[in-house]
Amino acid sequence: MKKILFIALFLLPCLIFAQTKVAVYVTSTDKVPKETKKVVGSEVTAAFVATEQYSAIERTSEFLAGISTEQEYQRGGSVDDSQICELGRQFGVDLVCVADITIYNGEYYIQARLIDVEKAIVLATAREISSLEDLDTVIKISENLAQKLISTTVTYTLSIENSRGALDIYIAGEYVGQAAARSITTFKVPLNLTGKLEAKSASGLFKRKEDFIIPKVKALEIVNVTF
Question: For residues 222 and 160, what is the distance between their CA atoms, to the nearest angstrom?
């Protein structure tokens, strides 16, 4: 128990403020008004921040300026995901949401993807199609787009080093799985599933229960717990 408490006290300062930092980048064809792009970017960012699992980077304008510079360097060409990831790492971003807006037959087609900059992989995608006839519609469509990305199961990894018999693992009262006896077991846990971790004897012979607190964590982060 002392070992568990030590680990909890060690990790708590690191995890409790560990919100996933996200930057939003909106790209489009020349026909899309700048005002529309700006509203989409602002509303998608606001929707992420409203969940309290994500925080927007403070240097958003510098990040966007960096992408613009990269575009100019490429002589008007689009910036690919690898370049975006590199810029994201430079600015301390965990995730970048890229929203592409295209006008087709009078309709706005918006396709968005959520990219993990460290691993350079797409975690989630979403799309919306609308005429965007007024500001309220632009705001609503932007919120819908963000919610689709947020609701996608983005996970963190829970790694349990278990020196005892098999343990049933619960987080915030929800069953996660069983940690095998005297081994290391990993679980992919939804990003929004945090709080009290409970480990209960799976055999039923012992009623010992150990508690551990998992505060907010970042996407794809690894949380190590030892029993």
Answer: 10
Question: Scanning the structure block, which residue is given the tokens 């509303």?
Answer: 43
Tokens of 4: 């568990």
pLDDT single digits (tens) 126-180? 999 999 989 999 999 999 999 988 877 678 899 999 988 899 999 988 999 999 9
Both tokens of 72, joined, read: 């100019």
The pair of structure tokens assigned to 36 is 């529309």
Task: Say which residue the tokens 């700048």 belong to.
Answer: 34
For 207, residues 6+ apart whose C-beta sits below 8 A from its C-beta are 200, 201
Helices (H), the chain: 2-15, 34-50, 60-73, 81-90, 135-151
Q: Give the DSSP H or E segment for 99.
A: strand 95-104
CA 129 to chain centre: 24
Task: In whole angstroms, give the CA distance from residue 24 to residue 103.
Answer: 20
Q: Which structure tokens are listed for 154?
A: 């983005």
